[in-house]
Amino acid sequence: QVQLVESGGGLVQPGGSLRLSCVASGSGFRIYDIGWYRQAPGKQRELVARVAAGGTTNYADSVKGRFTISRDNTKQTAYLHMNSLKDEDTAVYYCNAQLIISTVVNYWGQGTQVTVSS
User: Fold this and answer.
1) Has residue 72 got a pLDDT over 90?
2) Are 64 and 48 in contact (CB under 8 A)?
3) Which residues, at least 6 apart from 76, have a Cβ–Cβ distance to it below 8 Å?
4) Are 36 and 80 in contact (CB under 8 A)?
5) Averaged over 91-117, what is the pLDDT?
6) Is 12 within 8 Å of 113 (Cβ atoms)?
7) Which residues, including other chains, have CB under 8 Å from residue 6's CB and lie 6 or more apart?
8) How far apart are CA 24 and CA 7, in angstroms?
9) What local confidence, expressed as pLDDT, does residue 26 receive?
10) Residue 2 pLDDT more than 90?
11) Nearest to 115 by CA among 45, 47, 38
12) Which pLDDT band holds residue 43 (cuts at 50, 70, 90)?
């Protein structure tokens, strides 16, 4: 069974750092593109960062220069390095990936909570 498993969330003070990980578990697939979205209470889910199969990245304007997305295809894992965290970064962060099985299938992780607070 293919699934995305996130880890690395938690409570951090403003200005701090966290690293989120997303592992695509299972077999018989390749990761096409993969990224992170977030949803704060009362707000819509929004794109944070995404990395395509060829390595091209894109970021939300609000996180440019602070967050870095990367992927390790050998480990079927994507990372989100978050620096200079702000209160407004508080949200549930979801991993999303397009996996190539017999066709392209969209998957979501269960989410991990990131809370930025002093």
Assistant:
1) yes
2) no
3) 23, 24, 25, 31
4) yes
5) 94
6) no
7) 20, 21, 22, 93, 94, 95, 109, 110, 111, 112
8) 12
9) 86
10) no
11) 38
12) very high
DSSP per-residue string spanning 65-88: TTEEEEEETTTTEEEEEE-S--GG
Least confident of 8-12, 50-54, 63-67: 50-54
Integer Cα distance of 84 and 18 in angstroms: 9
Q: Hey, what are 35's tokens?
A: 């990224």
- What order of strands is seen across the sheet that includes strand 77-82? 3-7, 18-25, 77-82, 67-72
| Side chain identity at residue 105, one-letter code | V
Residue type, position 115, single letter: T
Helix, strand or coil for residue 16? coil
What is the pLDDT confidence band of residue 96, given thresholds at 50, 70 and 90? very high
Q: How far is CA 70 from each of CA 44, 51, 55, rounded to the nearest angstrom?
A: 24, 7, 8
Given the structure tokens 């970064």, which residue do they identify?
89
